[in-house]
Amino acid sequence: MHRITRSIASALVAGGLVFGLGACSDIADEASKAAKDEVSKEIDKQTKTEYEVTYEVTGDSADSIEFNAGGGESAANPKMETVKNPTLPWKKTVTLRGLEAPAVVPTAVDLTGDGKLTCKITYQGKTLSEESGAGAVSAAGCVAVSPVVG
Asked: pLDDT at position 12, please?
């Protein structure tokens, strides 16, 4: 009779473990799903959130200004536009998305060697990047990290 009791007790313990572990598995599955959902929301935020930046270029003169105009295929393949012989000071506000890096690069060739250029990128009144260049061939490249990346 002790054998039957032990067998029944063993079966009950094994059944309890199966149900208990099954419940833990359900909790783990729910936690995993919640974590995946949270990560998915954060990725959507960082890849789809739109924001505006303002590019500014000042100096003596510029032959061209190249800048990320927004609307590129991806952050790795931005849509760059070029303005030839712009009037300085030059200012442009663009809408970028997600991880797209704000970027503006003015260039100038000044045969006297005195050319000066400064670029600046602002977001909500805060300067993200500011650079200057001087000399016969000057470039002042400003690139910043997307302000929506958190």
From this structure: 46
